[in-house]
Amino acid sequence: MVFDDACGRKYLALLRQEGVQLRVLVVRQAGRVVFQHSARPFSPELPHPLYSVTKSFTSCAVGLLVEDGLIDIDRPWISWFPEYREFVVDERFLRVSVRNLLTMTLGQDGEPYLVGSDDWVRAVVGKDLAHEPGEAFFYNSLCSHLLALLVRRVSGRDESELLQERLFGPLGCGRWWWEKDSRGNSVGGFGLHLSTPDLARFGQCLLDGGVWEGQRVLPERWVAEATHKQVETRAAYAPEATEDRNGYGYQFWMCAGGGFRAAGLWGQICYVLPKEQLVVAASSSTNGSKSLLDPLYQVLWRTSSDKGASLADAGAYGFDALPVLEGSATAPHAERVLGRHACDENRFGFGSIDLRMVTSADGDRVLRLCLERVGKSHVLVAGHGWWAPTCAGERGMGELFPFATESAQIVERPDDIAHVTYGCYAWMSPSTLALRSVELDSTRRCNVVMRLDGNHVLCELSVTNMLCGTNPTTYYLSF
Questions:
Q1: Beta bridge partners of 216
Q2: Which residues contact 443 (CB under 8 A, 6 or more apart)?
Q3: Pairs from 235-243 (Cβ < 8 Å, separation ≥ 24)
Q4: Cβ distance 266 to 286 under 8 Å?
Q5: What is the distance between the terminal CA atoms of the chain, rounded to a whole angstrom?
Q6: What is the mean pLDDT of each successive set of 10 residues along the chain, which is 479 residues long?
Q7: Helix/strand/coil for 278
Q8: Which alpha helices (H) appear in 416-461, and where do they start and end?
Q9: Contact, 12 vs 311, CB < 8 A?
Q10: What are the distances in angstroms from CA 61 to CA 73, 192, 352, 443?
C-alpha cells in the first residue's frame, strides 16, 4: 500500500479518537519522508526521550564491535569484567553470555533497585538468578546497560562517543544527548534523547540492511540477526499484550502486524515493516506501543469496503496543537483560590500555594501557580485554550515527580536542548479548577485539580507518563 497524506491524517484522527497524545510523527516509505506531523508546543527538530528505544541503539553498538572482531557474543560477560567476580552472589551469573544480555535471558526475574551513588554492575551481580541463563525471557534494562559498559570496555570509548562517530554522524543526526549512570557511563537501556526525524533515519538504515544513502553504516549480518526473532516472549506476557508476545531479537521487538520495532516507555517507537518499505517513528506521551500500532494497522490493512466506515473522520479534528482542557476561563467563586495560601499540615513538606492571574511578557493573561516545598518554588504557568510557557529558569511542577533512577544518574541536559514546561487551565465546573502541563524533552504530564469544598480547598497534584519508582505520583493538599 502507498502511505499518503490521507493515510497520515486518518492515522492522526484514530490516535486522537483513542486519546493518544502524539507529539511528533515521521513516516518514510521507499526511502523518502511521505508524512510528517507535530503538535504544538512540540516541533520535529527537538530531541525527545527515547527510553527503551535506546536499547536498539545499544544493540547496534555491540554489532559494530562484533564486526570489528572485538566481541564474541557467546563469551561470558564477566570475562571482560573480572573485578566484579568477588561480588557475584549466584555462580550461574558467571555463565551469562553477551547473547543472553542481548536477548533478555539473563535469568533474573526483576531489576535491582538503584539509588544514589550505587554501582549499577554490583546491583546486578549482587542479585540472585531465578532461571538458568538463556532459559527464560525477562525484560530487564540492566541487561542493556551491561552491554553499554561492555562497549566502553572493549572500544575504549563511551557508547555515545562510538555511536556519534559510526552511526549518528553518518546518518546526519542533529542535536541529541545521553543520560549517564552514577559513574558517567551512557545508560544503555533508556538514556538516549533524539529527535523523531533522526529516529526515522535510524529506521530507514535498518530497513536498508545497515546502509544509509549508499554508505554502509551498520553490519548487514548484524542488522538481519538483531531484527529477527531470537527468543520467544509469549510466556512472559498476558494474551491481551499482543505486541509483546511475538518474540525478541537483539534488543528489538517483533510485531503483531509483521516487521519489527524499537520501542520505549510511553509510546516512543520506530516501527519498520520491510514488506511495505515503511518506517514509522513517533514521539508520544501515551501508554505503550499497542496504542500506536493498532490504529496504524487499521490504516495499513484497510479494505475498499471499510475505508470510510472504520476510520475516523480526519476533518473533525484540529491537529496543529495538543488538545487543551475544556471549560470556563473563570468561575463565580474563583477568588477563593486566588492569592497566597498556607497549606494545611501535610507529610509532603508543602508550605504554601500561590495562584494568581498575571500578564505574561507577551501581554497575554495567564494563570500562574507557585507551590513552595521545603524552600523551593515549583511553578506552572497556564493559558486558557492554549499552551502557555513557564518562564525560563523557573523550576517546573514536573520536578516534584523525578524518574525512578534519577538519584542514581547524572542527568545534565546540554544548554542548547530546550526543556520548557507548557500549561493550560480551565474551570471544569463552578467548584473545580484543573491545570495541566507538558514538557519539551520529557513525556511527563502533570495535573493539578483544586476543588472548593466547604471551608477548604482540596488540591490534588498528580503525574502521568513518568516512571517514578518509589517516589510519590500523587500529592494531596488542602488550604
A1: 211
A2: 48, 49, 51, 265, 266, 267, 268, 284, 285, 465, 466
A3: 235/136, 235/137, 236/136, 236/137, 236/138, 236/139, 241/290, 242/290, 243/288, 243/289, 243/290, 243/293
A4: yes
A5: 58
A6: 96 96 98 98 97 98 98 98 98 98 98 96 98 98 98 98 98 97 97 98 98 98 98 96 97 98 98 98 95 97 54 68 97 95 97 96 94 96 97 92 97 92 98 98 98 95 96 97
A7: strand
A8: none
A9: no
A10: 13, 13, 49, 26
| pLDDT, position 389 | 96
Quote the CA–CA distance of 64 and 53 in Å, as a whole number: 18
Distance CA 150, CA 457 (A): 54
Phi, psi angle pair for 321, to nearest 5°: -135, 160
Domains of the chain: 5-316 (3.40.710.10), 334-478 (2.40.128.20)
User: Which residues, at least 6 apart from 188, have a Cβ–Cβ distance to it below 8 Å?
Assistant: 54, 55, 58, 144, 145, 146, 147, 148, 149, 151, 159
How far apart are the C-alpha atoms of 197 and 440, rounded to whole Å? 16
Give the model's pLDDT for residue 315.
60
Beta bridge partners of 178: 192
Q: How many helices (H) and strands (E) does the chain have?
A: 10, 23
* Per-residue DSSP letter, 92: G
Coil, helix or strand for 184? coil
Contact between 350 and 375 under an 8 Å Cβ cutoff? The reply is: no
Distance CA 145, CA 152 (A): 11
Phi, psi of 126 (to 5 degrees): -90, 10
Sheet architecture: strand order including 21-29: 32-38, 21-29, 278-285, 268-273, 260-264, 253-254
- For residue 436, the one-letter residue type is R
Distance in angstroms (rounded) separating the CA atoms of residues 64 and 159: 11
Best CA proximity match to 370, nearest among 418, 333, 423: 423
The C-alpha cell of 167 is what? 552511526
Instruction: Return the bridge partners of 264, or none.
Output: 268
